[in-house]
Design goal:
Blueprint lengths: L2 E8 L3 H14 L6 E9 L3 H10 L13 E3 L1 H6 L5 E4 L6 H10 L3 E5 L6 H14 L3 E4 L6 H12 L6 E9 L22 H15 L12 E9 L6 E10 L4 E7 L7 E7 L2 E6 L8 E6 L7 E4 L8 H12 L10 H18 L8
Parallel strand pairs: 1-2, 1-4, 2-3, 4-5, 5-6, 7-10
Antiparallel strand pairs: 7-11, 8-9, 9-10, 11-12, 12-13, 13-14
Length: 359
């Protein structure tokens, strides 16, 4: 049986283009059991939407015979052919856009972070429940094949032995000082800052690799944080969150807009082996290597090689769950989204970073 999901793409920027790329590559696989059809691109102007369709190569030949259209927001929300909306806009717009999508009877996949804070996220979750519609935060990292394999090695096979310490870093040198404060990456009114933009991935690794439970069932932990707030734009461009679980496992979870991170953005240390992860983007964990303390054992190496950016894994998972009548993801349930949002809320509170929308 073939599952088909009809998408509306909200936001005609780079991240939406990367997401669409994966849907189109998937569609030309003759053996694929899941097909993703792009119905409409919602944008602030028709010309921007049309440019998006053209520049990302959305054609009837790779879109299940359907010609995608572009619509301004009001018409987009009301389009009855759309099953699910992908929200690829800056996170300060997420709450309103997800609300409008749910109110108009659409399922929603919204880019991370789902909102500015856990309070707003909780309100969206309650709305999704009331509308009986699927809602998920787009933390695509959790859906990669490598993550499933790694968690099997850590928690089931105990390949690393007893795990005690994690280093996870997502850092990119944006040359912040050269950027105007009006750009999204520095504008506090647009939710700028390393923690919400990229630090969420470091926190996610702290959850994926140190705990085999999710959300409300998670192993109890405590966190402490240090954010460096820029004196000009007042947001954090350097972020460190320390996490300690009650079973003794610890993680140092860092992010920065000032420096480039190491090639191995994750290092997980166990009594029997060390796990390292690398990729061109710490958000997409395509490769890993497990090196044993016992040098007579050959390393375990996994490298993913295909034409996908990696968004297809969450898209296919969502298609299956919606087809089964579910309204939340089993891989990333709402309680886990709220838990991670709570960690970042606490970090910002501890360091005095409050966004204008929260005052």
């Amino acid at each position: 049986m073939t599952i088909t999901l009809n998408w509306g793409i909200l936001g005609a920027g780079n991240i939406s283009g990367q997401f669409v790329h994966d849907l189109l590559v998937n569609n030309v696989d003759p053996e694929g059991s899941i097909k993703h059809t792009i119905i409409s691109v919602g944008s602030s102007s028709a010309s921007k939407g049309e440019d998006f369709i053209k520049s990302n190569g959305i054609k009837t030949s790779n879109n299940n015979g359907v010609e995608a259209i572009t619509e301004e927001y009001d018409d987009f929300y009301k389009n009855g052919k759309i099953d699910i909306v992908y929200v690829g806009t800056p996170h300060t717009f997420h709450k309103e856009q997800v609300t409008q999508s749910l109110e108009n009877g659409k399922h929603v996949l919204v880019e991370k972070p789902i909102t500015l804070n856990a309070k707003d996220a909780r309100e969206l979750i309650e709305l999704a429940k009331s509308k009986n519609k699927f809602l998920m935060e787009g933390v695509w990292t959790r859906f990669f094949p490598s993550v499933k394999l790694i968690r099997e090695h850590i928690f089931e096979k105990k390949t690393l032995g007893e795990v005690y310490k994690l280093f996870a870093d997502f850092s990119m040198n944006f040359e912040v000082e050269k950027l105007p404060t009006s750009l999204r990456g520095r504008d506090i009114k647009l939710g700028a800052g390393a923690t919400l933009d990229i630090g969420i991935y470091s926190v996610t690794y702290g959850r994926i690799l140190l705990d085999d439970k999710l959300g409300e069932n998670s192993t109890p932990f405590d966190t402490k944080s240090f954010l460096s707030l820029d004196p000009t734009d007042k947001v954090d461009h350097d972020s460190t969150i320390l996490i300690k679980y009650e079973n003794g496992k610890q993680g140092i979870l860092t992010s920065s807009n000032h420096t480039n991170g190491p090639d191995s953005f994750v290092r997980l240390e166990g009594t029997e082996a060390v796990l390292e992860m690398w990729s061109d983007n710490p958000a997409r964990p395509k490769n890993f290597k497990i090196t044993f303390t016992d040098k007579s054992k050959s390393p375990i190496v996994f490298e993913e090689k295909n034409d996908y950016n990696g968004f297809i894994y969450e898209a296919n998972s969502i298609a299956k769950e919606i087809n089964e009548g579910k309204i939340e993801s089993s891989v990333l349930p709402w309680s886990e989204t709220l838990l991670v949002m709570g960690i970042m809320d606490k970090a910002r509170l501890e360091n005095g970073l409050i966004y204008p929308q929260e005052k």
